[in-house]
Design goal:
Structural class: alpha+beta
CATH topology of the largest domain: Glucose Permease (Domain IIA)
Helix content: 10-25%
CATH architecture of the largest domain: Distorted Sandwich
Number of helices: 7
Number of domains: 2
CATH superfamily of the largest domain: Glucose Permease (Domain IIA)
Distance between the termini: 23 Å
CATH class of the largest domain: Mainly Beta
Largest sheet: 9 strands, antiparallel
């Protein structure tokens, strides 16, 4: 979620500072009576004050610094999961089943397919920050049409959501699982013709690259 430290004696990369500022504005419960802050990507005195104030809620000696995968960022934006389409995992159809581990010939399905309706809003399955536009196909018309996003959580968990049209200016945005709209679902029937159930593909790996079954964390 953060690529470097933010705050006192920190790297303070503009993108990371902006992520922290977004979270500060989203967490009114941590700001208490303090107003929202300007999201200018700069670590000025006001942003530092907010970091110190938020840390004081759960640290006896606030250090004024937020590190990647550290206690403060996890407190500010906890790892959470949510349903992307509010529909079940795809059952068996002409092209197989959508559950994690389903057969794909010589390989296993590395993710889970959540049934979708073309054009419907798709919500973030994981709380984190959208780091980039992700594409399941490298060439052809589908490489442009059937894209998606990558989301990284505060503990380094990474989630890919495919077969959507990403929302405008979504890269760099902090998103909340099951709440934030990340795009709209696209149909798969142009690629797979008849017989496939339209769906959104969700793939999740932990910080070390280990695969996570989406069905075990998205309830």
């Amino acid at each position: 979620m953060l690529t470097g430290s933010v705050g006192k004696k920190a790297k303070n990369k503009p993108g990371d500072v902006n992520v922290v500022q977004q979270i500060i504005n989203l967490r009114g419960d941590l700001r208490k009576k303090l107003p929202k802050i300007k999201e200018d990507s700069k670590i000025g005195p006001k942003t530092q004050l907010y970091i110190d104030t938020i840390q004081s809620h759960f640290m006896k000696k606030p250090d004024g610094r937020i590190d990647p995968f550290g206690r403060t960022i996890k407190k500010m934006w906890p790892v959470a999961y949510g349903k992307p389409t509010n529909r079940p995992i795809r059952g068996a159809d002409k092209y197989g089943s959508g559950y994690h581990g389903a057969s794909r010939g010589r390989r296993k399905h590395d993710g889970a397919d959540y049934v979708s309706r073309p054009g419907q809003n798709v919500k973030a399955p994981l709380s984190g920050v959208v780091t980039k536009i992700s594409r399941p196909y490298s060439s052809g018309i589908d490489a442009k049409i059937l894209s998606g996003v990558e989301i990284i959580a505060s503990d380094g968990t990474t989630c890919w959501v495919w077969y959507i049209k990403p929302a405008a200016k979504i890269v760099g945005k902090v998103v909340e699982a099951g709440v934030s709209v990340i795009g709209r679902a696209k149909t798969l029937k142009n690629r797979y013709k008849n017989g496939i159930t339209d769906h959104v593909h969700v793939r999740i790996h932990d910080r070390n690259g280990r695969k996570i079954n989406p069905a075990k964390v998205i309830k």
